[in-house]
Structure formats: C-alpha cells, structure tokens
Specification:
322 residues; mainly alpha; 2 domains; flat
C-alpha cells in the first residue's frame, strides 16, 4: 500500500508540474501575442512621427539619395533654425513682441478656450446630470446632435454673425463660444461632465442640501472639486485641439501677424523669404517642411509627456474607455 501511495504521489506531482508548465506556456503565448499586436498597432501610429523626425534632420542630398532612408549622413540642425525663424515661432524682444510670436498666439487661444470650455461645459453637464426639468433629455439629445453636425456646414452663418459683431480678424470667435459651452467640440465636453456627474452618489447632494446649500453652492463646492478627472481630460483635449486647429483660423483670421502656428505653416515659404531676403530656394525642400511641422507638434508632445499618467488615470475614471 505504501508503494502504491508513493507511486500515486509521484504521478500526481508529475501531472501537477505538467499542468503548471502547460499553464505557463499558455500564459507566455498569450502575452507574446498581445505584445506583438500592441507593437504592430503602435508602429502604425509611430511610423509617421519617426519618419517626420528623421527626415527633418536630413539634407536635400540625403532625401534624393536612395541609399539613405532612416539615418541621415549628417544632421542638419540648420533646418530647425530656419524653420523656427520662418514660423516666427518665438520672437522674444520684450512684451511688445508678443503679437509677433506665433507660438504665444496659439497658446493664448488654446489656453483661454480650454479654460472657457471646462467652466461652461462642467456647468451645463452638471445641469443635465443632476437637475430635473421638463425637456431635459430632449435638450441633451439636441446638444449631442450638434456634435454630429460638421462645422463646415454652419461656417458661413457663423462667419456672417461674427462679421456683424466685428469679430473677424480677432480671437473672439475662438474664445467667446468656449465660455458658452460651445466652440471646438464643446458638446463632447458636456457629455464627459454629464457622464461623470451622473456617476456620483446622490447622498452628497442630500447632505449638502441639509446643510442649506443651494444648487450653485453644491456645484461649486461639492461636485466640481470631485470632477478633477473630467476637468483634466476636457482641458487637455480642448488645449490640443485648439492648438492644432487649422480650419477655423483660416476662416476668421486675415492678417498674417495674427496667424497661429498651423496657419504660419501654410505660408511657410513666405516666412522663409522674409528671413532670407527672397533668396530661399523654390526647390521642394522636404527636410525643411518636416522640421517646421515637428516644431508645431512639439509643445503638445511635451505637454503629454508631463501629464501622461494623470491623463490616462483621468480617462479611466471618466469612463471614456468603457
């Protein structure tokens, strides 16, 4: 009996080891497949960025040389210098030079609009989420419908309205609508705040109401401090979208001295002629264009590097990934 028991114990141990190794192999295979899939997906998104960066460091000779593809024979830092000057990226000669700096103009519009959309969208989202009034769901559906309407379809009426208000060739068409829960993708931020506020327990408001708090006090002192994830997501999205926006500034801005960075990129060769005295070559210079494009996207990239962890956590807590 003892021998039989020992054989069964050894057999059981072998079977357990076999199942353990089988489980580990299955786990490794699953992880390998997931990592391979993630690498493939990331390559699709990273390939244009890597190509942009490597090309921006090349010379024209490297571009036309078929043997040079990724690594340039010599890094041309002058591409970034010329692009910086041609874009009027950051001309700093004192506060009087602020209007001549395209980066500061873009930052002025993006930050002001982002702050306005966070304030107004949080207020509207709180109303849709926590207050009961006739037609609430219908009004919310109409707000969502405005998000589905392409801005190109209403740009002419908006242009007429802003022209009558005297806002053409100013920054008011970007900033004022943002403070009215509108502007660039404003409905999306209303949706984000509504979904977040709907997930908060009603006991918070009941306790505040028992302490004599009104709707404004409950919004400002109870709900808004809890909405940090929604605030971070909405602010960063709005900031980046306004920074990269090209369509609306093309319509509303007329003077080159008021152009944002994307608009300065569209007249890049004009800016290059300004700094070279008209001596810039008219030959298509892909490295120079890539260097200018890289400078335009650098500020959002730097912002994401420093806010990546906070941004990912906020996206998860707002429920956008569900």
């Amino acid at each position: 009996m003892a021998q039989i028991a020992e054989e069964l114990r050894i057999k059981g141990r072998r079977e357990g080891m076999r199942l353990a190794w089988k489980g580990r192999a299955s786990s490794w295979a699953t992880k390998a497949f997931i990592y391979l899939l993630l690498i493939d997906i990331s390559f699709v998104f990273l390939f244009p960025v890597i190509y942009l960066i490597t090309t921006s460091m090349k010379s024209v000779t490297d571009v036309i040389d078929p043997t040079v593809y990724w690594i340039p024979t010599k890094i041309e830092w002058n591409n970034f210098t010329l692009s910086w000057k041609a874009l009027h990226f950051f001309d700093w000669n004192g506060w009087h030079a602020w209007p001549n700096s395209a980066a500061l103009r873009s930052a002025e519009i993006a930050v002001a609009a982002a702050i306005g959309q966070v304030i107004s969208a949080s207020l509207v989202g709180y109303g849709f989420a926590r207050m009961k009034f006739p037609g609430r769901e219908l009004l919310f559906m109409l707000a969502i419908f405005t998000f589905l309407v392409p801005p190109q379809t209403i740009i002419i009426p908006l242009f007429i309205v802003y022209k009558k208000l005297g806002w053409i060739d100013t920054y008011w068409p970007f900033i004022v609508p943002a403070f009215l829960a509108n502007g660039l993708r404003g409905t999306l931020f209303i949706f984000i705040f509504r979904q977040f506020f709907r997930g908060l327990p009603w006991e918070l408001e009941d306790a505040a109401r028992m302490d004599g708090a009104g709707p404004v006090t409950m919004y400002w002192r109870v709900m808004l401090p809890l909405a940090k994830p929604a605030i971070v997501v909405s602010f960063l999205f709005s900031l980046v979208w306004h920074w990269n926006d090209y369509f609306e500034p093309t319509i509303y801005l007329m003077s080159q001295e008021k152009f944002t960075l994307p608009l300065r990129l569209s007249i890049f060769w004009t800016g290059l002629d300004e700094i070279t005295g008209g001596q810039a070559s008219r030959v298509f210079n892909e490295p120079l264009i890539m260097a200018a494009s890289f400078l335009v996207i650098v500020p959002p990239l730097i912002l994401y590097v420093f806010t990546q962890r906070l941004f990912v956590e906020s996206v998860e807590r707002t429920g956008l990934v569900e």
